[in-house]
Amino acid sequence: MKLEDYELEKCLGKGAFGEVYLTSKKGDSKKYATKKMDREEIEQGESMKYLRNEIVILQHLNHPNIVKFKEVKKTKKHFYIIMEYCNGGELSKALEKYQNKFGKPFPENIVQHLMRQIISAFRYIHEKHIIHRDVKLDNILLNYENEEDMKNLNLMKAQVKIIDFGFACKVSPQGLQYSVLGSPINMDPLILKKLNSSTKKTRQLGYNEQADIWSIGTICYQMLIGKPAFDAEDMDDLVSKVEEGNYSIPTSMSREVVSFLNGMLQYDGKRRLTAAQLSRHDFLNKDIKTFHSIDLQKVSKKVDDKGLNVNVKSNATIWSIFNADSESLLTSIAGHKFIQPVDEKEEIDFENQNKLVDTTKASFVQLPSKGIPDNPTDIKVTGMTEEELKKQAQNSSGYTFTTSIFD
Prior knowledge:
The chain has 407 residues and is α+β, with helices and mostly antiparallel strands. 34% of the residues lie in helices and 18% in strands.
């Protein structure tokens, strides 16, 4: 199939809005992926808004772990979105193949390798005050340098590429977002609550970039355990399990990975580590060979036949694991506090707690327990204007974009 200088060679897969083709371009040795979408379907409802949004956001992003767009073309019947080609497919499929081949989910060294790249990408977009809002294994692609590594599923040689920024949005540095978007199984508890219960109070609850951190925590858990942290049969069951906040970790896992997960899977967004702080976490920076095992004597009451029991609303278990003989997380993030207490009492409690901790040995400090306060409703969200949509811009990856193709 020809499209001006491009040739759509073969279909790589089909999705809700079209098909993806392996693509070559005349005079260019690179391969591309082209998403062919039906204009009639896209131009109905919200789909066009999300497509425009993705193009506008991606034209300003340039990171090795974020997929790059090449061009947008249209015919009478179709839109063609031409982008960077990733030969390894979706991370969800790679996990499935690995489990089928080896009979277990990814080991910690593979998760470390993949999470270093994922966290790097999200640190980059969060510093630009962009929220992805649909973080899931299906929206992470893999790319291998050669065919052999791809066939052998050599994930230690795989490069991560974050895709699908249709639901992404930009907020002001101190702003909040209120829309309910994303995949429920990976959704921030606050957004899940808004989805499941539309009341005046829940509608006024806002969120920021930390919503992505929860979602990253859920996919990290899935890579390590092989199933969702909150495995549910339906929406009511999912909401119930997330509200209870219980998940389990095999006792064979390292204290470093438990700490890393716990830094993301916090019910309250304010208690989660940021992407920048996660990038400095021991799990991503230390040699796997130096990791420590869980001291079962310290957590004996928290262990059953399912493993180590952890709750997203309580840090008691994590506190008991990480109160000795491991490098301090606070030290590793240059001594900065990674929690902002929400009132004066918590500030005092937090300071007193730190005085009792030998931070040269502690690897995790207990976090404040107070819940999310009602969020102010007068925060202005920085949206994409019509001028931005129609503006021609040279993006930092070297590609030229114009959204006028949608007019």
